[in-house]
């Protein structure tokens, strides 16, 4: 059926735009910026000091069950099997212990935001327990735990990096007790200007793969920016050469939108592009396939975020808050990086391992047991989360 649009990501029924869009779906209640990520090594933060980095996002392929946010359950196919997508990023829930400035990954899984449906998670129980207390006493306290829905991706940071001894938060070098040698980490040097690291005689390399986790705002910036890149061709690297022909049913090929004739607004088109729709011809329910052509080559493919070097920075949010907004100053490309970087710089990290959930034992250690209704402590570690009275997703 597909003369134009190749399903290059080999994703069951979703193109990259649709995959990225999944990352913006979340509980209606947001909790703002997440924690410090003290747990994680090699975590990337775009600079917020007026400088910018050149980065290349590296797509992974991580299995993720598709969630129906209206039905509050997994999407199932005709044989009642859960539909599993392959996504280039991972989604996770981050908890941040405000007093201790410590963050960890929640264990409730993809259905965790729906009352009574997630995997066991003491952090989730604690969070909603406090949420209820705040609601009942009409104040802002207690609030010891912040919860954020996040996504994470691998990113190649294109700058000089130096292999330097790791220091703790007091500036002291961390020594491995076994080897008596310092722990070593890759640290980004200055691209321009005075560079102390360059003068230090450390091992140097150009470019380092890190992991970048996004809150909802940053994710939105990236996905909306990505939509503007699809007019370029990743096959021949031509600019502005992609023309959309039609949106068609993946099952029967029925044309749902003919771009020659459509009177739909861009907003309406975006909705049809991003959401699953039911085909009037064959009844198939799913994402549409985008038929495109390139005016410059015979094998046109829409460029994506992963085909560009992005110049990224963070700027202070204009609302006067403490937050920073992600800003993409420019996208350079589309162009491959095969000739520039070796395999190890083009390979993403094992994100599910890096962002593996804290065990119930760890959560109990961090949070303590949940108080019961009559003020007694109970063994929260084995109870299913119920979140009575919470308004999550309702
Ligand atoms: Zn159809
Ligand atoms: Zn082309």
Strand pairing plus helix content: what structural class?
Answer: alpha+beta
Tell me about the largest β-sheet: 8 strands, antiparallel
**Poorly predicted ranges:** 1-11, 27-38, 377-394
DSSP strand count: 17
Shape: globular
Radius of gyration over C-alpha positions, nearest whole angstrom: 23 Å
Beta percentage is 25-35%
**Oligomer status:** single chain
Report the average pLDDT across residues: 84
The total count of helices amounts to 7
Bound molecules: zinc ion
How far apart are the termini? Answer: 41 Å
Descriptive notes:
The protein is of the alpha+beta class and 394 residues long. 15% of the residues lie in helices and 27% in strands. It contains seven helices and 17 strands. The strands form five sheets. Strands 1, 6, 7, 8, 9, 10, 16 and 17 form an eight-stranded antiparallel beta sheet that branches. A three-stranded antiparallel beta sheet has the order 12-11-15, with no helix packed on it. The longest helix is centred in the first third of the chain and has 16 residues, at 122-137. The radius of gyration is 23 Å and the shape is globular. It starts with 15 loop residues before the first helix and ends in a 27-residue tail after the last helix. Residues 1-11, 27-38 and 377-394 have low confidence and may be disordered. The structure holds zinc ion (ZN) (2 copies). Residues 249, 251-252, 254, 279, 281-282, 284 line the site of one zinc ion.
């Amino acid at each position: 059926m597909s003369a134009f649009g190749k399903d290059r990501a080999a994703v069951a029924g979703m193109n990259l735009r649709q995959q990225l869009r999944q990352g913006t779906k979340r509980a209606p209640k947001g909790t703002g910026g997440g924690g410090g990520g003290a747990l994680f090594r090699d975590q990337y933060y775009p600079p917020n000091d007026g400088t910018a980095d050149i980065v290349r996002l590296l797509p992974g392929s991580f299995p993720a069950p598709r969630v129906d946010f209206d039905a509050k359950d997994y999407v199932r196919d005709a044989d009642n099997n859960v539909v599993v997508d392959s996504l280039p990023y991972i989604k996770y829930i981050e908890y941040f212990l405000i007093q201790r400035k410590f963050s960890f990954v929640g264990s409730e899984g993809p259905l965790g935001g729906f009352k009574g449906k997630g995997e066991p998670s003491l952090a989730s129980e604690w969070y909603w327990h406090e949420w209820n207390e705040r609601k009942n006493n009409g104040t802002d306290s207690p609030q010891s735990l912040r919860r954020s829905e996040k996504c994470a991706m691998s990113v190649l940071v294109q700058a000089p990096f130096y292999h330097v001894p790791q220091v703790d938060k007091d500036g002291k070098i961390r020594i491995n007790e076994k080897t008596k040698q310092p722990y070593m980490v890759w640290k980004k040097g200055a691209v321009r200007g005075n560079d102390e690291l360059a003068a230090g005689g450390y091992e140097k390399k150009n470019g380092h793969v890190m992991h970048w986790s996004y809150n909802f705002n940053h994710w939105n910036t990236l996905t909306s920016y990505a939509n503007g890149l699809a007019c370029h061709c990743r096959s021949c690297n031509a600019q502005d050469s992609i023309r959309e022909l039609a949106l068609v049913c993946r099952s029967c090929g029925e044309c749902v939108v003919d771009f020659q004739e459509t009177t739909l607004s861009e907003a309406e088109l975006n909705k049809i592009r991003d959401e699953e729709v039911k085909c009037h011809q064959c009844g198939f329910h799913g994402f549409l396939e985008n038929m495109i052509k390139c005016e410059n080559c015979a094998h046109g493919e829409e460029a994506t975020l992963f085909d560009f070097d992005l110049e990224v920075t963070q700027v202070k949010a204009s609302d006067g808050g403490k937050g920073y907004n992600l800003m993409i100053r420019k996208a350079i490309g589309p162009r491959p990086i095969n000739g520039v970087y070796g395999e190890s710089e083009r390979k993403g990290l094992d994100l599910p391992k890096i962002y593996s959930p804290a065990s119930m034992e760890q959560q109990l250690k961090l949070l303590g047991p949940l108080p019961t209704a009559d003020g007694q402590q109970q063994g929260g570690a084995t109870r299913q989360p119920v979140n009575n009275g919470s308004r999550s997703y309702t």
